[in-house]
Known about the structure:
By secondary structure, the chain is α+β, with helices and mostly antiparallel strands. It folds into two domains: 1-36; 39-121, Carboxypeptidase-like, regulatory domain (Immunoglobulin-like). Helices cover 29% and strands 39% of the residues. The chain has one helix at 2-36, and strands at residues 40-48, 59-63, 67-70, 76-82, 85-92, 99-106, 112-117. Strands 3-2-5-6 form a four-stranded antiparallel β-sheet, with no helix packed on it. A three-stranded mixed β-sheet has the order 4-1-7. A hairpin with a 3-residue loop joins strand 2 and strand 3 (67-70).
Amino acid sequence: MKNTNKLLILFFLFASFALFAENEGHLKKHKSSSVAEQSISIKGRVVDVNNREGLAGAEITVEPYKIKTFTDLEGNFEIAGLTPGQYTLICSLISYRASLLENLEISPETNKIEIALEEIK
């Protein structure tokens, strides 16, 4: 029984290390390509869909890299260090419906966006 437990622990340690190494590889690839290519920023504002007021504290996540940021008091945000390409943005805030922007094309010419969230009633 003790050998089985040791084998299970070793297996989980190996699997965790392999997953960590794979994620590190993706991030290094993204970071190294952003140095070679043009690095751009996404700037935007998160607003209430009804009154267009900025929403403070909304979380914006950029997939597939799990980059996160939060809006300031006026609902503004900026995510720097991206390369041109397609991304998925997820925006969420407590008491609002989350917004999913899939296949968002980011280029140096189109880097400003507005995300409108609807309050849950």
